[in-house]
């Protein structure tokens, strides 16, 4: 268990138009998944002692795209975001700086690696961190390390996978970022 004292919620996306489980990746169509998150957070807060300044969003593939949508549509709810193998749709544009940790595989053919790099560039632009970077381990780069909204990337040599170390890296990133008001 990567973070034993955290409340962790794993959702399963409902069937999409193609019949496969998934998440909305753009606003619209009633925003069913955004509303689900709103209701789930309200229920969790009513049941548990939730630290409102330490709520995070992460997801893999379609879930990574949903994490980016949450950043754009619910910027005041989450302290940081960690999309894994996700990209931004053209209709999704975060506007409020927030810490982001993006994990991408160089050989990803499901969510094209170039689209993930483009999402990282948008995150750097929104967060105002520019190109100045420093290393943070093998394949790891952090932009704006001394800001309240850094962009950290971990580019691994794999394909469309969730590498073994991913959860630990996400937890380490999240632990370093509480929501700022």
Structure description:
The chain is of the alpha/beta class. It is 29% helix and 16% strand. It has helices at residues 32-47, 62-73, 113-127, 166-175; strands spanning 56-60, 80-84, 100-105, 133-135, 140-143, 151-156. The protein is globular.
Question: How are the strands ordered across the major sheet?
Answer: 1-2-3-6-5-4
Q: For the CA atoms, what is the radius of gyration?
A: 15 Å
Residue-averaged pLDDT, rounded?
93
Distance between the termini: 30 Å
The largest pleated sheet is described as: 6 strands, mixed
Ranges where pLDDT stays below 50 over 5 or more residues in a row are none
The portion of residues assigned to helices is 25-40%
Q: DSSP helix count?
A: 4
Total strand count, please?
6
Derived structural class: alpha/beta
Overall geometry: globular
Strand residue content: 15-25%
- How do the helices and strands follow one another from N- to C-terminus? HEHEEHEEEH
List the helices and strands and how they pair.
Layout: H1 32-47, E1 56-60, H2 62-73, E2 80-84, E3 100-105, H3 113-127, E4 133-135, E5 140-143, E6 151-156, H4 166-175
Parallel strand pairs: 1-2, 2-3, 3-6
Antiparallel strand pairs: 4-5, 5-6
List keywords for this structure.
alpha/beta; six-stranded mixed sheet; 4 helices; 6 strands; 29% helix
Task: Summarize the model shown.
By secondary structure, this protein is of the alpha/beta class. It is 29% helix and 16% strand.
């Amino acid at each position: 268990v990567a973070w034993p004292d955290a409340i962790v919620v794993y959702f399963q996306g409902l069937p999409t138009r193609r019949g496969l489980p998934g998440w909305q990746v753009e606003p619209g169509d009633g925003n069913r998944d955004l509303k689900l998150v709103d209701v789930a957070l309200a229920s969790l807060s009513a049941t548990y002692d939730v630290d409102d300044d330490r709520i995070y969003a992460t997801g893999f593939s379609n879930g990574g795209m949903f994490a980016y949508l949450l950043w754009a549509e619910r910027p005041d709810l989450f302290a940081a975001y960690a999309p894994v193998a996700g990209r931004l749709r053209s209709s999704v544009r975060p506007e409020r700086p927030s810490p982001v940790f993006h994990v991408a595989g160089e050989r990803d053919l499901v969510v094209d690696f170039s689209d993930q790099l483009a999402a990282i560039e948008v995150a750097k632009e929104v967060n105002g961190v520019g190109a100045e970077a420093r290393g943070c381990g093998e394949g790891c780069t952090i932009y704006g390390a001394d800001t309240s909204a850094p962009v950290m990337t971990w580019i691994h040599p794999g394909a469309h996978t969730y590498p073994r170390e991913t959860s630990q890296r996400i937890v380490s990133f999240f632990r370093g970022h509480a929501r700022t008001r």
